[in-house]
Amino acid sequence: MSHERLRASIDQMEAWVADPSWEPDPEALARWDADFQTALAHAAKGPDWPDLMARAHAVGHRLQARTVRFAQVRDELRAQLDAQERGNRALKGYRAGVR
Question: Cα-Cα-Cα-Cα dihedral of 36, 41, 47, 51, to 10°?
Fold first, then answer.
């Protein structure tokens, strides 16, 4: 059935997004996207098409939300590292003035 590859791709993404410890691997995501696009191009739009598309859109929204959260965590870490670096520079400057 032409939907099997499409369904398998959606199943894979749903499993990834459902796993709280999943960390996106850019290469794996690129392979997944290529497989998904190929399956999408070859799938026949039969009676179960609306359900497949609803699942694909739902998991896409969940992935988007997770991506936003990863970006927030990255930005928070970057801000903490920047603050630490500024503090280290201030301490170095303070020590130089004390000697």
Answer: 30
Are 38 and 5 in contact, with CB atoms under 8 Å apart?
yes
Can you read off the two tokens belonging to residue 72?
């927030």
Q: Which residue has the tokens 């290469």?
A: 27
Q: What is the mean pLDDT of each run of 10 residues along the chain (99 residues)?
A: 82 91 86 92 87 93 87 90 88 69
DSSP track, 18-56:
H-TT----HHHHHHHHHHHHHHHHH----TTHHHHHHHH
44-58 burial, b at 16+ Cβ within 10 Å, e below that, comes to eeeeeeeebeebbee
Q: Cα dist. 99→16, 19, 95, 96 in Å?
A: 56, 54, 6, 6
The C-alpha R_g of the chain, in whole angstroms, comes to 22
